[in-house]
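ugh ok fine here u go
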Amino acid sequence: MKQAAIVYNIVHEVNREWAEQIDAFVVAFKKCGIELIPVSNIDAYDYVKQYKRYINFILFWDKDVYLAELLETTGIPVFNTSKAIRVCDDKALTYIKLKSHNIPTPKTLVLPFTFGQSLLKFYDRIKTLIAENGFKYPFVLKQRYGSFGEQVYLITSEVMFKKMLQAIGEKELLVQEFIEESSGRDFRINVVGREAVSIVMRVNQGNFRSNVHQGGIMSSVPHPDRRMLKLAVKAAKAVGVDFAGVDILMTASGEPVVVEVNSNARTIAVEEASKVYVSLFIARHIKRFYKIRKMDLY
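structure:
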């Protein structure tokens, strides 16, 4: 049986939910005739150097782009690539990629970089900048780096905006249009290769964020809007991923827009809701393409 490695963050060892995802991939790859060996990010580089001749590829289930790029220097294919993970993990870079490929996305303003200083110190100029770009309350404030909807805030007033800037501190931020019609609802489309393999709807009755970790509930979408599926595939291609979870909102006019692309989107909950074995799709895709990717590295 061929061997490969799945590199995970050490935090996964103390989080049962995340550990279950690693186990799910191990099972899926075994169905494709590949022994997927879990290796923590602490041990990954030394492990790969020692057993390089046996490792056909690396499934990188972490967001440490520096480690991913370091592993790529060994000549072993890494899925997703460090470049793709970097783009997806930074919401500002995601926005730039989507915009440059003419992919519809909510109106967005990336706030200035201030060398670790809180934007509150420059509040009057930030307030003017936001107003000049056409934003009015309510709008969505996001940290550029974050997962599970935990760093996303609905700003409804100037008082709230100031308080949030005080609480967030020096984090890098962006402002995004609030699409009220999609408050508490979005669609997660899993793309593998150039195919939309599954779609679920996430609904949260008590929060504008539809994330499952914020209380959102997933359900299947028996008759999906094909425009959403095509848009998700275009978005995945634009950011350079082999696989991803693409989040889509519907505007008041009924047009789909891409809000985020997740390079490390968990598959277990999606599989339960959609009845589609997304992990197996990922395993089959990597098995099919890792040799081609390896040739490209040399």
